[in-house]
């Protein structure tokens, strides 16, 4: 049984947004978007995890994000500490910029964090119930800052409003670029080959790709060489909204993940059916770390 409600709790927009079926599309959007950062592309390309084990790599990543969003504090902190140790091994030289990269670099961690939380909210707005209320949106971005305490980036650097997110993207845009390795990663994640991804991920990635692309700005679509007609953008939205409405029940959400993303399914199932925790209250990353004696 969970020890507590984690960092956000049952009434939080984070629980609402991250457990929506639209989070799958948001996740695909974020991992594609991340490749516009050349240092992050170098880390992904050199490690080759998404190519040698796409299901395992993507499943573990989404399960981690979901754990931070909905698991109890101890579980979330333990997951973050484990991931930081894994990332510590991912270092090298980016052949595009000549700079040294590190998966734990604060700037790279900030890029991953912001693109993840923004993408999941964006797809919730486009394909799910729509915009949060102003109060919910303020709280969502405040919770995004709290979640950043588990990363190597400084929480003070994390955008805390929609306007600050726009400012962040405007600030980093001059450093974004593409390359052969970036294009390889983006296209691979949009439409994973059957041989590596097996049939379910092969099909899932292709079903989601048009919906994912439709939420991205045109300049990114053109830069990444995965643009699509605006007519397809318009046509895909009502179809995806209808599919999301069908998949809203707990069992439907789990069925979508079954056989493809087992770790993510496990985290979501524990969340949906866990009942009242030992301490029916939220905690903080600092308190959870202290309880586990994590420095």
TrEMBL record:
<dbReference type="Pfam" id="PF09995">
    <property type="entry name" value="MPAB_Lcp_cat"/>
</dbReference>
<feature type="domain" description="ER-bound oxygenase mpaB/mpaB'/Rubber oxygenase catalytic">
    <location>
        <begin position="15"/>
        <end position="248"/>
    </location>
</feature>
<dbReference type="InterPro" id="IPR018713">
    <property type="entry name" value="MPAB/Lcp_cat_dom"/>
</dbReference>
<protein>
    <recommendedName>
        <fullName>ER-bound oxygenase mpaB/mpaB'/Rubber oxygenase catalytic domain-containing protein</fullName>
    </recommendedName>
</protein>
<dbReference type="GO" id="GO:0016491">
    <property type="term" value="F:oxidoreductase activity"/>
</dbReference>
């Amino acid at each position: 049984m969970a020890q507590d409600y984690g960092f956000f709790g049952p009434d939080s927009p984070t629980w609402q947004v991250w457990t929506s079926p639209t989070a799958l599309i948001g996740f695909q959007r974020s991992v594609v978007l991340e490749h516009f950062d050349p240092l992050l592309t170098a880390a992904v390309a050199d490690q080759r995890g998404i190519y040698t084990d796409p299901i395992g790599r993507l499943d573990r990543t989404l399960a981690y994000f979901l754990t931070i969003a909905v698991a109890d504090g101890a579980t979330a902190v333990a997951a973050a500490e484990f991931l930081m140790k894994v990332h510590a091994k991912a270092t090298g030289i980016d052949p595009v910029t000549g700079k040294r990269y590190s998966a734990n670099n604060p700037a790279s961690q900030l890029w991953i964090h912001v693109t993840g939380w923004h993408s999941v909210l964006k797809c919730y707005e486009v394909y799910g119930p729509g915009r949060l209320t102003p109060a919910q949106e303020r709280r969502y971005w405040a919770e995004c800052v709290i979640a950043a305490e588990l990363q190597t980036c400084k929480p003070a650097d994390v955008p805390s409003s929609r306007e600050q997110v726009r400012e962040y993207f405007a600030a980093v845009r001059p450093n974004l670029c593409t390359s052969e390795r970036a294009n390889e990663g983006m296209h691979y994640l949009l439409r994973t080959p059957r041989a590596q991804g097996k049939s379910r991920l092969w099909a899932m990635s292709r079903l989601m790709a048009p919906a994912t692309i439709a939420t991205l700005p045109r300049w990114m679509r053109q830069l990444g060489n995965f643009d699509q007609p605006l007519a397809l953008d318009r046509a895909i939205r009502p179809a995806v909204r209808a599919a999301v409405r069908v998949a809203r029940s707990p069992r439907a959400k789990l069925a979508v993940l079954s056989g493809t993303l087992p770790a993510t399914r496990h985290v979501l199932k524990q969340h949906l059916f866990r009942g009242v925790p030992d301490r029916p209250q939220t905690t903080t990353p600092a308190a959870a770390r202290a309880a586990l004696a994590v420095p």
